[in-house]
Amino acid sequence: MIMVNDGRYKVRWRPGMTIRDLLNDLKFSFPRLVISVNGTIVPRDQWDTYTLQDGDRVKVIHMTAGG
Amino acid sequence: MPDPKEPLPELTPEELRRYSRHLLLPQVGLEGQRKLKAAAVLIVGLGGLGSPIAMYLAAAGVGRLGLVDADVVDESNLQRQIVHGQSTVGQLKVESARQRLLDLNPHIQVDVYPVRLTRENALDILRPYDIVVDGTDNFPTRYLLNDACVFLGKPFVYGSIYRFDGQASVFDARRGPCYRCLFPEPPPPHLVPTCGTGGVFGVLPGVIGTIQATETLKLILDIGEPLIGRLLLYDALDMTFDTVRVPKNPKCPVCGEHPTITELIDYEEFCGLTPPDQPPAEDLEITPQELARRLAAGERLRVIDVREPHELEISRLPFAENIPLEQLWSRMDEFAPETPIVFVCRTGERSRLAAQEFRKRGYRAWNLAGGINAWAREVDPSLPQY
Ligand SMILES: [Zn+2]
Known about the structure:
The complex is a heterodimer of chains A (about 70) and B (about 375).
Chain A: E1 2-4, E2 9-11, H1 19-26, E3 34-37, E4 40-42, E5 57-61
Parallel strand pairs in A: 1-5
Antiparallel strand pairs in A: 1-2, 3-4, 3-5
Chain B: H1 13-18, H2 20-23, H3 29-38, E1 40-44, H4 50-60, E2 64-68, H5 93-104, E3 109-113, H6 122-126, E4 131-134, H7 139-152, E5 156-162, E6 165-171, H8 179-182, H9 195-198, H10 204-221, E7 230-235, E8 240-245, H11 267-270, H12 281-284, E9 285-286, H13 288-296, E10 302-305, H14 309-312, E11 321-322, H15 325-328, E12 341-344, H16 349-360, E13 365-368, H17 371-378
Parallel strand pairs in B: 1-2, 1-4, 2-3, 4-5, 9-13, 10-11, 10-12, 12-13
Antiparallel strand pairs in B: 5-6, 6-7, 7-8
Helix pairs in contact in B: 4-5, 4-10
The complex binds zinc ion.
């Protein structure tokens, strides 16, 4: 199981699952999301190759503009 | 940071009394307080974040504060922008803030820049300051500040807020990542909600701005662990703080190994705010009187209110359909290209984005100028304005 945003979403893990697969499963399409896995940001150019492990904690972070 | 070769300024007897609680702290002490007095900090934006940043840095005795903001104080700012007050509504924010800060601490110097920061003036304005603190409310200025700080080798104390969520970090390209390492590109402008369109919980900038002030003071004093290489995430509803590690991106276009951005660029264009295919704003606008006339003439048109459902409880137009802006983009195929559409929101800001995006895709779309508040002023005074 992959825990997303402190358990707000739970996604079934499968072997070889990449960050891109996870976002597709979640139907998250908002451009310019930032993703951390187990507390470290993973750059966008690694989303297709970074494979998640069962139990990974993923955080989906939005850019905010307000001040 | 203050030039280590320069002798630190002495504190007067009044200053010693004022800063007593700092002088008692071994991590600050007399030397630290003199470092604060020698420091110069630039605060860009005197809004929700800038208010507590400026007040705490002034109270702490930072010797020189620079304030940048071209706006004037509006009554709707006072729900969160605590450096201003009812008596300064209508004044320049930098002037309003200067009065308040010098009342709080007359021993400091406050410089004001009532201008918009641009690629032309940014480097000159930033240069005399040791640290730049982010109180801006938009992406173009944030990217501008980041790049300028990378070029000048200055720490950039970042903060941003939206609704109940806040973020903070310290970007210092000499010691860690920059804002672009974390956020290489901004989202397209029609998907960027601002506090003026999405709302903001009034205490939220108090929390984030105070964290930015804390980090600024730590940098000056050189104490503790700065937020360099870490992004702090605050959720006021869940009341959780989380930090994630932000690696430096070796391919970063401004602070990476082979930078492609080596001077300030056009940040409005970079953020997609002035694309060449955008129809001029005036062609998109329809006045409340014009809309009223066309409706009275029985013209077939759809009026779409893009506000969120809870806003309709405050005021609503009986002839409008409600499709919140977030849902609109996925429902474009529900519109016929030949039927005129008029988009409405509170002030015409969100609905203008809707009208622009629909125009680009060939729809006959207009924006109600000034939103439902203008309709209330000019056509139906029985509606409340908010
Ligand atoms: Zn960078």
